[in-house]
Amino acid sequence: MAVAMETDHYENFPVASILMPPRLRRPVGLIYRFAREADDFADEGDLQPTQRLALLDSFSLELDHIEAGQVPEIAWFSQLAAIIREHHLPIQLFRDLLSAFSQDVVKARYADYDDVLDYCRRSANPVGRLLLVLYGAATSRNNQWSDAICSSLQLINFWQDVAIDYRKDRIYFPQDEMAQHGVSESQIAHAETNGLWREFMSFQVQRTRQFLHSGAPLGRELKGQLGLEMRMIIAGGDRILSKIMNADYDVFRRRPVLKAHDWVLMLAKSAF
Fold this sequence. Notes:
Number of helices: 14
Radius of gyration: 19 Å
Order of helices and strands: HHHHHHHHHHHHHH
Shape: globular
Number of domains: 2
CATH topology of the largest domain: Farnesyl Diphosphate Synthase
Structural class: mainly alpha
Low-confidence stretches: 1-16
CATH class of the largest domain: Mainly Alpha
CATH superfamily of the largest domain: Farnesyl Diphosphate Synthase
Number of strands: 0
């Protein structure tokens, strides 16, 4: 679950939270480390695609070792193995993350909305589900709410990072919807907001906002600090969408991020 802030290093997932119960900070930190490092294999540096895939395969091999009860070769994976065993974390959710990051290496365009959501299902939803297992709250209903929140946050990340992703030769907009609105790759390449761009972006924002809020009951279902954290996450995603709207959908020149005053407002909104 992620909402981008102003940082020097972009990360898909927050590494820590002051709202996280102390007993969960270490396992959560290890889950985020797995996701962050695997994501960096797909994104960072000047590696060739074959090198990126090989690094991701090395993480997959370590999951095989953990599943077989063998000692991992990468040192910190022994810590990950311990929390997987202790909390009965489904290894398949870690594999799903690797599947999405590997897809980023080889796939740069998405035919339709379902195609994008399939990516979100593997790139974002596993983290939410792993956290619910840690919380002891992984019911079928909670998983559905969590999936809606996590997929929405991934979509929000796409909408605020259109220019960043294009520099990596990636476009996460559904290609059929781009065609319907007359939005071209050339328009994205040249950061043009003419034509039906604003109508197109408004459609993406409104659909994503509805999707995000469809998972909002999870913020009330989870109690105490965990519930507050979830409500903060939802409020953060909603605020980014508002910032996109307030920028008149020009995410090229006014990339929306959360700043200090936003967190104060989000906390006030989420506390009650």
